[in-house]
Every structure is written in C-alpha cells, then in structure tokens.
C-alpha cells in the first residue's frame, strides 16, 4: 500500500511542528505539542521525526513517529493505515457490507451469528462495560443515535413517539453472546449496534501495535480527541499534551500533561453540540431521554490502552463525575478529570492519580 500524497501528509524532523497541525484541527479539547525542542535537525544519534495523516473511519488519523529513515517510516505508516482500513470493514456502522452492519441486519431473526475474533473481542468489552455501568454504556444505542443525528440536521427535537419507538430497540441485554460458539444473537428486530465509542480506541491501539512490529516504539497516534501513546520522543519524559479549558467563564486554565505508553480519551460537548429551543445539547445521546446530553462537560481519561480510556470517558460523560470517577478508580491504571458546568458554576473533579501526569 502506497500512501497517496493527496491523502497523506508527511514531514521529517525540523520541517513542521505538530503543535501547529493540532491547533488548526482542535482535537476535541486537547492539543499535541510533541517533542518541543527535540524536534530539531536530526543527528547520527537522534532518530528523525515523521508525521503522517490519512482519513480513516470518517475522521483524520494522525501518526507522529521517530524512525531512522524515511523508507522505514513510510513502510510502518502504510501498514498501520492498512490495519485501520481492515478494522473499519469490521466495526463500521456506515459501511453496508461491514461485519457489524451484517450482524445488525440479523436482529430479530432468532439466528446466532458467528463473529470474527476481532468483533468478538470488542463485543465482550462492550458487554463488560455495560454491566459495570448498569447500562449507561450501551452499543445498542444505534436507533437513538440515528434519531438524534436526524434531529441535529433538521434542527428540530424528535417527538416522544419517535423516541419511544427507537428505545424499544435499544438495550445491551438484548445482545446474547455465546462464548462456546463465539456467536452473537440480537433479540429484537430493528436493532442497530454502534461501536463508535470504542472502535476508534481499538484502531488507535492497533496502529501503535503495528508500528512496534516495525521496530518503532517512539510514536503517538491520534483520532479526533483520542490517542494511543508509545515511548516518548528522544530526550523527553513524555509526549506533551495541552488540555484546552472548558468554554465557560471561570473554567480552570489550560493544563499540560506529559504522557507515555498509555491510552488517552476525551468526551464531552466542547466542539460537538447544537442549540435547540434555547437549550444546548451534546452529540452524545442520553439513553434515559433519547436526546443529546445537556450537561456541559469535558471528560479526560488516561488508561493503559485507548479502548479502556474510550469506554470510561464515554461512560463518565453519561453518568456524571461521581459514578464515572468511581468506575475509573476501580479500573487498574486508569485516571480521569471532569470539568463541567451543571448550572452557573464550573466544577472540576479528578481522581487522585491524575495529578502525576501534570507536566513538571
């Protein structure tokens, strides 16, 4: 697979600063500043810095890595993007012939459908997260997501009847997973699975894994507001991440983190929201109401991998800081920060371990 110049951008050390790219794209409340002063002219003892960008899963995937040469970097990036394309054919709810779409079409048929190892792994993660969150996290939310997307486009709230009809096809317990046959059965007609809250995290983790198989450990991969982070740039303790403040008066100021070998995810309505009837709604659907969340918030989760960070950030955004941070605390290696404006005042809460990631 060759990386086409019109879809992929690349730069070696000293050619372009990744912070500028991130500032232009505003990655859901965070900015990646990368190696800072270490991104200077390459020397014999310092690997070169390369950047790649390609549209995948409906959003820009960006890779920053350190490699000994352009050919090594190109080969690794090509393999990584090819892997994301493979995963999209499994996880996408937009592609007509994806494995997830075909599974959704079997809903209500009474058939137990054999699924691939890759889809099985993510379905099990979703089931476990749904159980831990008492259903606040739910990949069967697809029918409600469709209703809410239409409402955002038309700028008109859906009727209670439309919401009730969609809700009847939603519920994580309506998906039956059989570990013996490795099958999935969707019990109710018209169900539609939506893995958007964790599929991207899985893809980012896989990009990092593929890069490592090519001998590249110093890398950072982003997709919208989520990241898979490897070893830090040469001479640095971590990748420097800037957290943008919540867009509300009195919000805590910009904060910098130093991250390495972890997953990072953000959720909230900082950039994706709509005002209907004088009220601000998030793109994240509240299963209780069938509408977008109305809690103005920004959730940041750091975890051992991006799938875990992804699922925890989405769940915390839905259930609120008290329950959400309790789930984070119960997850080994996970930390989180929540900034929200439930009324007139801004509130900021974080787990005890989050402070250790602050840049010294």
Topology at a glance:
Layout: H1 18-25, E1 30-34, E2 48-56, E3 59-67, H2 70-91, H3 99-105, E4 113-114, H4 117-132, H5 142-154, H6 160-167, E5 175-178, E6 183-186, H7 196-213, E7 219-223, E8 226-229, E9 239-243, E10 255-259, E11 262-268, E12 273-276, E13 279-282, E14 285-286, E15 291-292, E16 296-303, H8 306-319, H9 321-329, E17 335-341, E18 347-350
Antiparallel strand pairs: 1-9, 2-3, 3-7, 4-6, 5-6, 7-8, 8-11, 9-10, 11-16, 12-13, 14-15, 16-17, 17-18
Helix pairs in contact: 2-7, 7-8, 8-9
Catalogue the unreliable spans.
1-31, 34-45
The CATH C-level class name of the largest domain: Alpha Beta
Number of domains: 2
Q: Tally the helices.
A: 9
Shape descriptor = globular
* SSE-based structural type: alpha+beta
CATH third-tier fold name of the largest domain: T-fold
Major sheet: order of its strands? Answer: 2-3-7-8-11-16-17-18
- Termini separation comes to 41 Å
**CATH 4th-level superfamily of the largest domain:** ApbE-like domains
The percent of residues in helical segments reads: 25-40%
What percentage of amino acids are in beta strands? 25-35%
């Amino acid at each position: 697979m060759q990386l086409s110049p019109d879809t992929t951008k690349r730069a070696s050390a000293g050619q372009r600063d990744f912070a500028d790219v991130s500032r232009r794209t505003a990655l859901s409340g965070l900015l990646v500043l990368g190696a800072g002063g270490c991104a200077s002219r390459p020397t014999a003892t310092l690997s070169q810095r390369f950047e790649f960008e390609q549209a995948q899963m409906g959003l820009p995937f960006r890779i920053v890595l350190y490699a000994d040469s352009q050919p090594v970097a190109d080969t690794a990036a090509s393999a990584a993007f090819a892997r994301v394309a493979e995963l999209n054919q499994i996880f996408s709810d937009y592609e007509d012939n994806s494995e997830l779409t075909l599974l959704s079409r079997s809903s209500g048929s009474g058939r137990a459908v054999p699924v691939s190892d890759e889809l099985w792994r993510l379905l099990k993660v979703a089931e476990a997260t749904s159980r831990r969150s008492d259903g606040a996290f739910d990949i069967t939310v697809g029918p409600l997501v469709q209703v809410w997307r239409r409402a955002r486009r038309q700028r008109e709230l859906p009727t209670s009847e439309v919401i009730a009809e969609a809700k009847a096809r939603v519920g994580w317990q309506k998906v039956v997973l059989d570990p013996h046959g490795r099958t999935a059965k969707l019990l109710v007609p018209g169900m539609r699975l939506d893995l958007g809250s964790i599929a991207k995290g899985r893809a980012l983790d896989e990009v990092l894994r593929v890069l490592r198989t090519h001998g590249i450990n110093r890398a950072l991969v982003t997709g919208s507001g989520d990241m898979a982070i490897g070893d830090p740039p040469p001479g640095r303790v971590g990748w420097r991440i800037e957290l943008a403040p919540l867009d509300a008066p009195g919000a805590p100021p910009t904060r910098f983190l130093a991250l390495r070998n972890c997953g990072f995810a953000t959720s909230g309505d900082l950039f994706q929201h709509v005002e209907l009837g004088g009220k601000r709604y998030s793109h994240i659907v509240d299963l209780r109401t069938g509408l977008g969340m109305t809690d103005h918030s920004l959730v940041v989760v750091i975890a051992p991998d991006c799938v875990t960070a992804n699922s925890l950030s989405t769940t915390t955004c839905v259930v609120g800081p008290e329950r959400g941070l309790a789930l984070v605390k119960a997850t080994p290696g996970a930390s989180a920060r929540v900034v929200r404006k439930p009324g007139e005042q801004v509130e900021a809460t974080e787990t005890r371990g989050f402070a250790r990631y602050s840049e010294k």
